[in-house]
Amino acid sequence: MLVVRPAGPADLDSLLELAILSGPGFTSLPEDPDVLSERLDLSQASFRGEIAPQEAWYTLMLEDASTGDIDGVGSVKATVGLKRPFFSFRVVNNTVQSPSLGVKLDHQTLVLVNECTGWTEVGSLFLKADRRKGGAGRLLSQSRYMLIGAQPDLFADTVLAELRGVFTPDGACPFWDHVAHKFFPMEFDDADRMTGSTDKQFILDLAPRHPIYVELLPEPARAVIGKVHPQGVPAMALLESEGFRPNGLVDIFDAGPTVSCPRDMIRTVRDARALSVEIATEIEAELPALISTDSVAGFRAVRARCDIEGDAVRLTAETAAALKVRAGQSVRVKS
Fold first, then answer.
1. Please, are residues 208 and 288 in contact by the beta-carbon 8 Å criterion?
2. 197/210: higher pLDDT
């Protein structure tokens, strides 16, 4: 059985392995043991309620309960943009016209903005290649929304996700090479690392202060604005199935899209029900359901068969053990 559970300091080696496998452009998974170690400490403190709710960053690990192998990671950042700006480019459509010439033109510009302050962010969704089938990705993705739904007051009214932009097979990033690099004279990996480990003052210092006209950019850069990295297409599909939609913002380095959704309209948050646990030896349901604990502290989630009757849910002893719940306790279920 696959179990999604809180990450902690003991997961450093596994998280570093996932960071290396994720490749370039995955800003939230830097290949830096010190940064990842700090993140795991923060995750543990977040789940324990030892820090202010708005500073919490919950990291979740996908674990194979039978082997102990860590096969994936996901996260929920309670708020963004409060201590460090959360910069994006907004794609702005501008129409100009000359009645005397009978000319009407539509122009697009990229404008540096910091619009998402205080929003919750779901991110860091990454699985090992051999786990990207069989529903593991959906389990890990939806577990983040089960976490939010368990205690909604800990999270913002709007939830966003950033998707990695387009990179070529040899690791080049067209938008970085033709646009962002003109303003940030450094390697992409260095800018990527600094975004996750500094106060982002370098962005404020160096980023363009005036709109960038898309028509003036080289075709390779224009073609990737708002487009998703091929490895991110399944993640985009999962987000769209939950109700997330592009909001006109793109990443300032790789031009990957930002999507957002009102917290209470996320399908898994909206549809999951709190039910009382009963333990049964046999389950009649043929299809599995998404089941999680109903609080942030000690959060765990699985996909397993269960029988729902009224306000009760019957689980096998194995499922209850994986969730670490007992009869009479409450869980959240989305069938």
1. no
2. 210
187: buried, middle or exposed (CB in 10 Å: 19+, 13-18, 0-12)? exposed
Q: What is the pTM of this model?
A: 0.91
Q: Which strand (E) or helix (H) includes residue 161?
A: strand 158-162
Structure-derived torsion over alpha carbons of residues 137, 140, 143, 144, reported in degrees to the nearest 10: -100
Most distant CA atoms of the chain, gap in Å: 81
Give Cβ neighbours of residue 33 (< 8 Å, ≥ 6 apart).
12, 16
Tokens of 127: 């699985």
Burial of 115 (0-12, 13-18, 19+ CB in 10 A): middle
Distance CA 4, CA 142 (A): 10
Catalytic residue among 107, 181, 210, 229: 229
Report how far residue 325's alpha carbon sits from residue 95's, in angstroms, rounded to the nearest whole number.
59
208: nearest Cα among 199, 217, 197, 220: 217
Measured distance CA(146)–CA(152) in Å, rounded: 10
Give the C-alpha distances (Å, rounded to integers) separating 275 from 284, 301, 308, 327, 334: 18, 14, 8, 11, 10
Beta bridge partners of 260: 160, 245
CA 214, CA 327: separation in Å to the nearest integer? 59
Counted residue by residue, the chain has a size of 335
Give the separation between CA 143 and CA 136, rounded to whole angstroms.
11
Q: Per-residue DSSP letters for 302-334?
A: EEE--EEETTEEEE-HHHHHHHT--TT-EEEEE
Name which of 132-136, 145-149, 303-307 the model is least confident about.
132-136
Q: Are 163 and 259 in contact (CB under 8 A)?
A: yes
Which letter does DSSP use for residue 157 in this model? S
DSSP state of 229: P
- Looking at residue 51, its pLDDT comes to 94
Alpha carbon distances (Å) from 84 to 111, 155, 197: 19, 18, 10
229 is an active site residue: yes
Residue with tokens 């540096």: 112
